[in-house]
Prior knowledge:
The chain is an alpha+beta fold. 21% of the residues lie in helices and 23% in strands. Strands 1, 5, 6, 8, 9 and 10 form a six-stranded mixed sheet that branches. A four-stranded antiparallel sheet has the order 3-2-4-7, covered by helices on one side.
Amino acid sequence: MCDHHDGCAHSSHNRREPAGSSEREQTRLTRRAVVAGGVGLAVGLAGCLGGGGDGGDGEVPEPVTLTQADQCEVCGMVIPNHPGPTTQIFYADRQPSGHENPARFDSTWEAFQYDFERQNRGWKRQAFYVTDYSAVDYELSTDAGDTLISTHVEAADFVEASDVTFVVGSDVKGAMGRDLIAFSDRADAEAFQGEWGGDLSTFDEVTEQTIAGLANR
């Protein structure tokens, strides 16, 4: 396994054409508009930042704001430029991909894939943050027949992954296709699943098989 995203066999094996890279259709659904129109995306505005992780004896690092300088550790794409859930992971006494923490990703399934590999090597995770779609004012758009969810990169947009309910493999896609879309309010996740399909899952229920299933879709 390697830590590099450019030119390594690991990353190229799983690389996909990014969603949302072509000119988007004009149809655009905002979360507020959907709620007002009664379409059924019943979502809340609550969110929280938490600690946790499965390791570390000291302070849990806080999430950071992602910028145009931040590329996905797996696919190398500039994170703010693409739709979908984003993720950041902190490791104790490690430099993910040769730089300071956190490891940064433009999709949650890629983050899990990266993390499973590091966990198997004995890396100790301090914090695993995901976009909290219960806390952000997200948008849905259409592009070439795909429904895409907006990306959010401010530090306040992230929540500890152990505090969310994921909707796994719904019809709504991110930069790397079907993904895990996180909600700190389970009722939001249930409403989203009712509208767009997929399965509900907690952080601990996500397995390497779950991620392999998404990587192939």
